[in-house]
Amino acid sequence: MRAGWRRLSLMLLLLVFVFSGNLTAQSQSQTLPDAPRPQKTFPPPESTVPTESSSRDSAPTPAAQPRVDQPAQPDATNPSNGTGDTPPNAAQPVRNPVTPDTDRLYKLVSTTNFVEIPVTVKDNSGHMVEGLLPKDFTVYENGVRQKLTYFTSDPLAISAAVLIDVGMPDTALRKVQEGLQALQGAFSQYDEIAVYTYGNSVTKESSFSAAGDRLTQALNRIVETKHGQQGGVPVGGGPFAGGPTVNGRPFDPSVPQIPIVPHDRRVLNDAVLQSALDLSKVQPARRRVIMIVGDGREDGSRASYADVLKILLTNKISVYAIGVGSAGMPVFRKLEQINVPGTGTGNILPKYASATGGEVFSEFTKQAIENAYSAVTLVARNQYTLGYYTQGTLAENYREIEVRVAHSGLRVTAKAGYYPLPPGRQ
């Protein structure tokens, strides 16, 4: 009986051993690979960009691997690249070649300037010529033909600074004052006007605003409060000023004393300069115009003609003038070219108009002066506008401009040149 139990125990142990062996063999067969395990990690595709959390043992991207037949070039943004200080398989930030470097966007220097030229074309009868096309115009800068990149014949709104000379003789000023109300009718509701008066000094009568109550008040104030020079030549010294004096009293009381009249100045250059600086602040899409009503005499300004002209050309301002008084009379227009010492400069209105592409309307009667207001705005509003790009970038270099029209018998009026702006950043 005891021998039977012993035999049964041995059989049970044998069965347990066989069963456990089968389980071990089955589990080992499931963990065996179907193919040999790869010993090297392949690099990620080119579109995969490594991050800072990438392992140092991971392979670099193909873009970071130098070719065998070319030496590795150090990256300017990473001095350690290619020098051996940083492991070649370390994760490095990759610059996207498609995205531009934003740091360089603010370092691009402009090497060109856009030159805008208002052009007036008239026939032999003085009427404006319409219907011309870009092919009809040719522009030369310093003798070199330029390629037009802009052309329009559309009318533009006007920003006008009206300068009235109150230092003229009183008879001439009264003719201007009597027709000043006609000045409002020369402008449209889209224009803006500022009014200045000048004589011994410059006075801003009204700021830029549309033709309306403010302009009416300014014109009425000029009519009521401004008076021109009375007859006679002012004496400022010399042999006609009387005999010698001691402490302001005549040395010889028997010698008749001629009263010394204070010398009146005509600060035309200063007036043009102040109005030009104000015009430089208006919207660039408007036609900038200075309209001078006077005889064009200049005497005593602190600003010179050359300095004022540079401001005008830099800010694309055209000067139109209505010559009244002596400037409206043909005989006096020739005589005033002879400058008498101590009396200032003669009529400089043609110089301003010719240099800036404007025009002078010499009128003598009241009705002619009133008609001249509308003529100025008509010409300024309906000019052709040409434009081109130039390489000129030095502000101190003056460049000459010549505009030609491919039709005979036509008179072209445009500014004689310009001053390039200094280099600017895009």
Task: Supply database-style keywords.
426 residues, alpha/beta, Immunoglobulin-like, Rossmann fold, four-stranded antiparallel sheet, 16 strands, 25% helix
CATH class term of the domain at 158-227 and 261-380: Alpha Beta
Mean pLDDT: 76
The CATH architecture name of the domain at 158-227 and 261-380 reads: 3-Layer(aba) Sandwich
Alpha carbon gyration radius: 44 Å
**Segments where pLDDT lies below 50 for 5+ residues?**
29-33, 38-90, 97-110, 331-343
| Spatial sequence of strands, sheet with the most strands | 7-6-5-10-11-12
Concise account of the structure shown:
The chain is an alpha/beta fold and 426 residues long. Among the domains are: 105-155 and 382-426, Immunoglobulin-like, CATH 2.60.40; 158-227 and 261-380, Rossmann fold (3-Layer(aba) Sandwich). It contains nine helices and 16 strands.
